[in-house]
Amino acid sequence: MSVPVEYLHREPPVDPELIARLEERIGHALPDRYRDYLLEQDGGRLEENDRGVDSIFSLGGTSRGVGTWESLDTYRGRVPSWLLPVADDGAGNLFGISLRPGDRGSVWFWDHEGQADDGLPPAEDNVTPVGESWVEFLDGLTPG
What we know:
The chain has 4 helices and 7 strands. The chain is globular and about 40 Å long. 31% of the residues are buried. It has a 7-stranded antiparallel beta sheet. 24% of the residues lie in helices and 20% in strands. A hairpin with an 8-residue loop joins strand 2 and strand 3. It is α+β, with helices and mostly antiparallel strands.
């Protein structure tokens, strides 16, 4: 059994109204396991870990780390439309949750080094799967 990665800072649970606003903006219901996570805590910063996850984005706004709304604006047209940015590694790379029917809820790593040039549609060859669900992904992180 692995030792779980601890949080350096946890945000309080998100207001369900913000979840509804996010779902309206992205045009999809959030996967259940990610929605449940937000209702427990609205992101935070993690200790060093084997995947390099630094900050989990907050819907409610925070003085620490990046917010979900900011990430949606920053990465629009840069990441595939089926990928919801939810965390970063502090080096410009993202972790996102799939909104596609075939693998909905799975977690993916987006490498900014492989993004498409300006004016081109988002590339997908720089996106790799890293977890079958949000909870599995977080539970699988190990200190590093």
